[in-house]
Amino acid sequence: MKNPKSKRILVAPIKGIGHVNACIGVTKGLLNRGHRVAFFLETPFSGKLKSYGFEEFLYEPYKDEDENVEQFKNPGEQMANKLLETGILGKNDLRTQLTRLGNRSKIFQHERIKYEDEQLRLVIEKFQPDLFIIDNITLEPAIYYSNKPWIDVMSVVPLLYLQDIDTVPPAWTGFSNNDNNHDEWNEYRKYTEMYRYSKEFNDFIEQIGYKRYPDDIMLPKTQSLTIYAHPEEYDYPEIKQYHPDWFNIDVFNKNEKREMIDLKEFLPKEFYESDLDGKFSGKFIYVSMGSMGSIDLDLMK
Q1: What is the pLDDT of residues 173-197, one digit of tens each?
Q2: What Gene3D superfamilies does this protein's entry cite (predicted)?
C-alpha cells in the first residue's frame, strides 16, 4: 500500500564519487522512511545506486569536441582527466592553483551547463519531485526556479561559505585557525571569492532564459536546510555562531555495521610488517586525499 505521506526527492550532486557517496549517506534514512529518492547522474554511474534502493535518472556525459567520452567508463573519470589537464592539483604555487580552478572554461563550460539544464528539466517533468537535494558550488537554475524547496549539502568545503568571517581561513588554503597573519588570508580570499560569485555564470543563465541570481551569486542561500559533516572535535565554532541553522551530521557515511577491514589485504607486505626500527607504536593513521586528490600520483608521493 502506498504511503500517502511519501515524497519524491531528486538528488543532484557534483558528478564525483565522493560527492555522490556523501549524498547517499544523507538520503539513505529517507529511503528507510518510505520516500522515493532518485539521483540525477551521468551514465557511468549506471547501476551503482540501485543496490541501495535509489532510482537513477541517467544522461550521457557532455562531450567536448576534442574529447572521446567512450574512454570514460568509470564514474568521475572524465572529471579526473580534466583536473589533471588543467593542472589544478599538485605542488604548484597556491595562487596559481586557485586561479586555474577559478578558470572554469575547462570544467564549467557554458554549453555543458545548457546541456545539463536541458537533461535536468526533462527529469523534473517526468519525476515531479517534491524536494531537491543538491551538493555543488553552483545551483542549477531549473531547481532554483522550480518553486520547490531544496536542501544544500556541503561535501565540498564549508569554509567557502564562511568568507565573510575574519576568524576562519580561506577555503582550500590549508591555513591554521591559529595563524595570526590575516593579511595573507585576505589576499587569498580574492581568489576564493570567485567560487561564490560570477557575472559570467549569471550572464549565461540569463541567455538561456532564466533570471539572474541575486548579487550574481552562483549558489543562492537555501530557505530549507543546510547540511555539512565535521566531527565535533574538528568543527569550526564560528559555524554555530554565525549559522546556527546549519545542521552538522559529523560524517556523511557511518560504519553502522561496524565492519572491520583487514589491512593486510590492502597494504604492501613490507609496509605492514615494518616496525620502523623499533619505533612503531602499533597504530596506523589513514590519510585520505579524497576521490580526486589521489589521481595525481606525484602529489600522492
Answers
A1: 888 887 777 888 888 888 888 888 8
A2: Glycogen Phosphorylase B
* Distance of alpha carbon 8 from alpha carbon 177, whole angstroms: 41
- One-letter amino acid at 206 equals E
Domains and CATH numbers, the chain: 8-257 (3.40.50.2000)
Q: Can you tell me the distance from the alpha carbon of 251 to that of 151, in angstroms, rounded to the nearest whole number?
A: 17
| Phi, psi angles (nearest 5°) of residue 124 | -60, -45
**Pairwise CA distance, residues 289 & 269, whole Å:** 22
pTM comes to: 0.85
Residue tagged 549506471 (cell numbers): 46
Q: Identify which of 287, 297, 301 has the alpha carbon closest to the alpha carbon of residue 84.
A: 297
Whole-number Å distance between alpha carbons of 285 and 69 = 37
pLDDT 10s digits, 14-59: 988 889 999 999 999 999 999 999 999 999 999 999 999 999 999 9
Tell me how far apart the alpha carbons of residues 201 and 21 are, in angstroms, rounded to a whole number. Answer: 27
For CA atoms 28, 258, 48, 296, give the dihedral sign. positive
d(CA 37, CA 30): 7
Taking the C-alpha atoms of residue 165 and residue 36, their distance in angstroms, rounded to an integer, is 38
Round to whole Å and give the CA distance between 188 and 41: 33
The b-or-e profile of 259-295 (16+ CB within 10 A means b, else e) is eeeeeeeeeeeeeeeeeeeeeeeeeeeeeeeebbeeb
**If DSSP states are collapsed to H, E and C, what string results for 81-103?**
HHHHHHCCCCCCCHHHHHHHHHC
Q: How far apart are CA 58 and CA 261, in angstroms?
A: 32
* Type of residue numbered 237: P
User: 170: buried, middle or exposed (CB in 10 Å: 19+, 13-18, 0-12)?
Assistant: buried
In contact, 171 and 160? CB cutoff 8 Å:
yes
